[in-house]
């Protein structure tokens, strides 16, 4: 299973043209290296730059943006930066990784599914008429929500995202 949080970092580094070394981690048997670099949470991703570890994907993305100024992932305008951060936070708190939805059963699954669909409608509405959250350029919010593209294979037209999600869900979780 691809880790969507690590994928954010890989995509940002590639957008910036930064060479990196990725180390795969078995999260069921965490390495001493991971525990050393992230002793608080003991989870991925961790970016080590100049010998200093940075953890938590949103923090790492902001660090990448501030460290390598070319191809910025946050706009210069404070309002537009705030909007990107809002949608990134919205993903982490409301959309999350829909794959975990499939581990729920019965009423709990139905309620979670309804909430997920409702939250995806907000995302669809925000993207209406735009290629990316920031307009014509990939930004922080796109990187954070990018796991949806990995999950669903390709982004459908924005007004079809909910329909494709339902089809994906039905494919992998047919009614019992």
UniProtKB/TrEMBL annotation:
Any one GO molecular function term: glutathione transferase activity
Presence of keyword Lyase: no
UniProt KW keywords: Detoxification, Transferase
Cellular location(s): Cytoplasm, Cytosol
Source organism superkingdom: Eukaryota
Keyword Cell inner membrane recorded: no
InterPro entries: Glutathione-S-Trfase_C-like, Glutathione-S-Trfase_C_sf, Glutathione_S-Trfase, Glutathione_S-Trfase_N, GST_C, GST_C_Tau, Omega/Tau-like, Thioredoxin-like_sf
GO biological process entries: glutathione metabolic process; toxin catabolic process
Domain GST C-terminal: 77-176
Pfam families, A to Z: GST_C (PF00043), GST_N (PF02798)
Predominant subcellular localization, coarse grouping: cytoplasm
Catalytic activity reported: RX + glutathione = an S-substituted glutathione + a halide anion + H(+)
Family note: Belongs to the GST superfamily. Tau family.
UniProt xrefs under PANTHER family: GLUTATHIONE S-TRANSFERASE, GST, SUPERFAMILY, GST DOMAIN CONTAINING, GLUTATHIONE TRANSFERASE
Listed name of the protein: glutathione transferase
Lineage of the organism: Eukaryota, Viridiplantae, Streptophyta, Embryophyta, Tracheophyta
């Amino acid at each position: 299973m691809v880790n969507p949080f690590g994928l954010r970092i890989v995509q940002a580094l590639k957008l910036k043209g930064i060479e990196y070394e990725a180390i795969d981690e078995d999260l069921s048997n965490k390495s001493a290296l991971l525990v050393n670099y992230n002793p608080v949470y003991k989870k991925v991703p961790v970016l080590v730059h100049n010998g200093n570890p940075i953890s938590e994907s949103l923090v790492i993305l902001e660090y990448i943006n501030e460290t390598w100024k070319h191809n910025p992932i946050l706009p210069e305008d404070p309002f537009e930066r705030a909007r990107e951060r809002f949608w990134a936070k919205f993903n982490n708190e409301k959309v999350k990784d829909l794959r975990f939805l499939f581990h729920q059963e019965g009423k709990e699954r139905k309620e979670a599914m309804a909430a997920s669909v409702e939250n995806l409608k907000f995302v669809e509405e925000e993207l209406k008429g735009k290629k990316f959250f920031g307009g014509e350029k990939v930004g922080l919010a796109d990187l954070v929500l990018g796991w949806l593209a990995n999950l669903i294979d390709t982004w459908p037209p924005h007004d079809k995202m909910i329909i494709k999600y339902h089809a994906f869900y039905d494919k992998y979780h047919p009614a019992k």
